[in-house]
């Protein structure tokens, strides 16, 4: 089952959009690079910091707390202090709406 997060037009290229609340069990970060939208867990795997408060460059998001960087396509970190990846979720754009699989988000809890 798909969870509708927002309109694709709400995702500004070069910015990170945080989605939290009753629709999703964990906060998510949405990123638009070109026409592609990516979704990953919004919490850094090193420390409890919102990646949406960080910086985005191309396909890399940087945590605002200790500057760990993650690939938005894979969730893999590319520098310490983070050693574990953040979870990524498959995005479906349906009728202009950004959606993710409910089961993949629920597993994050």
From TrEMBL:
Origin organism lineage:
Bacteria, Bacillati, Actinomycetota, Actinomycetes, Streptosporangiales
The UniProt entry, under InterPro entries, shows:
Rieske_2Fe-2S (IPR017941), Rieske_2Fe-2S_sf (IPR036922)
List the CDD domains hit by this protein, alphabetically: Rieske_RO_ferredoxin (cd03528)
Q: Name one Pfam family in it.
A: Rieske
Provide the Rieske domain boundaries.
3-100
- PANTHER family hit by this protein: 3-PHENYLPROPIONATE_CINNAMIC ACID DIOXYGENASE FERREDOXIN SUBUNIT, FERREDOXIN-RELATED
Recorded hits in NCBIfam families, A to Z, give:
PRK09965.1
Its name, as the record gives it, is Bifunctional 3-phenylpropionate/cinnamic acid dioxygenase ferredoxin subunit
Which GO molecular-function terms appear in the entry? dioxygenase activity
- State the UniProt keywords alphabetically: 2Fe-2S, Dioxygenase, Iron, Iron-sulfur, Metal-binding, Oxidoreductase
């Amino acid at each position: 089952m798909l969870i509708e997060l927002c309109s694709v037009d709400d995702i500004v290229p070069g910015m990170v959009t945080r989605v939290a609340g009753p629709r999703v069990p964990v906060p998510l970060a949405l990123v638009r690079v070109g026409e592609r939208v990516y979704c990953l867990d919004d919490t850094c795997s090193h420390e409890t910091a919102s990646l949406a408060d960080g910086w985005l460059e191309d396909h890399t998001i940087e945590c605002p707390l200790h500057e760990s960087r993650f690939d938005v396509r894979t969730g893999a970190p590319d520098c310490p202090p983070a050693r574990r990846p953040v979870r990524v979720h498959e995005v479906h754009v349906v009728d202009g709406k950004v959606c993710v699989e409910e089961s993949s988000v629920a597993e994050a809890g």
